[in-house]
Design goal:
- The strands form three sheets. Strands 3-4-7-8-9-10-12-13 form an eight-stranded parallel β-barrel, surrounded by five helices.
- The model has no long low-confidence stretch (mean pLDDT 96).
- Helix 3 runs parallel beside helix 4 and helix 6 packs across helix 7.
- It is an alpha/beta fold.
- Helix content is 35%, strand content 16%.
- The termini are far apart.
- The longest helix is centred in the first third of the chain and has 16 residues.
- The structure holds flavin mononucleotide (FMN).
- The site of flavin mononucleotide (FMN) has 27 residues, from strand 6, strand 11 and helix 9.
């Protein structure tokens, strides 16, 4: 209610500035004693040996520098993906680079992985995670802008070496539209050496590798998606995240800003990609569904299409602090109404 009242005011301010203000305000909350995760029984999910109190997570890009790992469960999130972090610190693209399309419930961003770099983020997490997180934390890694595509494997491996010790899972992001050439790394020939270099990293104290996920673009054609699902099975990739933002502008006219579109207009393609990946892999690869989740029906649609977990970014911006808990609560009701005893029973139920 409060957020709804404040929203017109906040939406009158530059969106990136609002984000910075919100992150600074939340820094005080980070120091509070841990919140009990929101976990109604049917929403519990166990995956990759991890306990997810509920399947609604914060999508990558919101907490790029892993400043607030303890805050996200307070909003009802059952997990959070931090990053994208790159091996080298970088400022990102010139501002303005984040735009609201309020009438479409969408955002366009061309931030370009603005972040403090793997070393600084690892040092921050070494400090903050002395107090263990109460929900699983993924860390999303991307390619440094100044590094050639040909040298991407070592760049990803460098981020991985520094950050994997703090991650419950690691996501290889090869799908942001805002780093030149990045999405070309989704070609199996390019992805293969990246996965090889990451798997070759020796973690300190003989620590086991966390689950490895790959995040995909919605703009890939279906043939490329099938190849990637095959690749994931062959190389024992633990999960796929579908999807990143789109360079398409479905249903949107008179919009000239470049960058990745997120929010409502992305939901349909994201669901198609989830369904295709699930069918093509015979449900053998867990899928994290993301793109246009605003309410419980959106989350349920993704789960029924084949998502084991769901994330939200734009829906959190538009819906405010109560949105994740509202989505999770409504999801539990829909499971009950549909006669599903647990989330796991509903995954892929409309996938065919
Ligand atoms: C402002 C903004 C920044 C983002 N930054 C990242 C990022 O750093 N890494 C990443 O993998 N995805 C990033 N994303 C994509 C989201 O994680 C998500 O895949 C996409 O926005 C679709 O979900 P949504 O419709 O719920 O926003 C970003 C999205 C937005 C809107």
């Amino acid at each position: 209610m409060l957020y709804r009242a404040l929203r017109p005011l906040l939406f009158g301010i530059d969106p990136e500035r609002v984000h910075e203000i919100a992150m600074s305000a939340l820094a005080a909350v980070e120091a509070l004693p841990p919140a009990t995760p929101f976990s109604p029984t049917p929403l519990v999910r166990n995956l990759w040996g991890l306990h997810f109190p509920n399947p609604i997570g914060l999508a990558a890009g919101f907490d790029k520098n892993a400043r607030l790992p303890h805050v996200w469960p307070r909003f009802g999130f059952g997990f959070a993906e931090l990053g994208t972090v790159t091996a080298l610190p970088q400022p990102g693209n010139p501002k303005p680079r984040l735009f609201r399309l309020a009438e479409h419930h969408a955002l366009i961003n061309r931030l370009g992985f603005n972040n403090e770099g793997a070393n600084a983020v690892a040092r921050r997490l070494a400090q903050s995670l002395r107090r263990p997180a109460t929900v699983p934390l993924g860390i999303n890694i991307g390619k440094s802008a100044v590094v050639d595509l040909a040298d991407a494997a070592e760049d990803y491996a460098s981020s991985y070496r520094q950050l994997a010790p703090f991650a419950d899972y690691v996501t290889v992001n090869v799908s942001s539209p805002n780093t030149k050439g990045l999405r070309d790394l989704q070609a199996v020939e390019s992805l293969s050496p990246i996965v090889g270099a990451i798997r070759g990293v020796e973690l300190p104290q003989g620590r086991a590798h966390p689950p490895l996920l790959i995040k995909l673009a919605p703009d890939l054609d279906d043939g490329a998606l099938r190849e990637l699902a095959d690749f994931a099975l062959e190389r024992d990739i633990d999960g796929l995240i579908a999807t990143n933002t789109t360079i398409g502008r479905p249903g949107i006219v008179n919009q000239t800003e470049t960058g990745g579109l997120s929010g409502r207009p992305l939901a349909q393609r994201s669901n198609e990609v989830i369904r295709l990946l699930r069918r093509h892999s015979d449900a053998r690869i867990p899928i994290v569904g993301v793109g246009g989740v605003f309410d419980p029906d959106d989350a349920f649609a993704k789960i029924q299409a084949g998502a084991d977990l769901v994330q939200m970014y734009t829906g959190f911006v538009y819906g405010g602090p109560s949105a994740p808990r509202r989505v999770a609560t409504g999801l539990a009701r829909r499971l009950e109404a549909g006669g599903f005893a647990s989330i796991a029973d509903a995954v892929g139920s409309t996938c065919g």
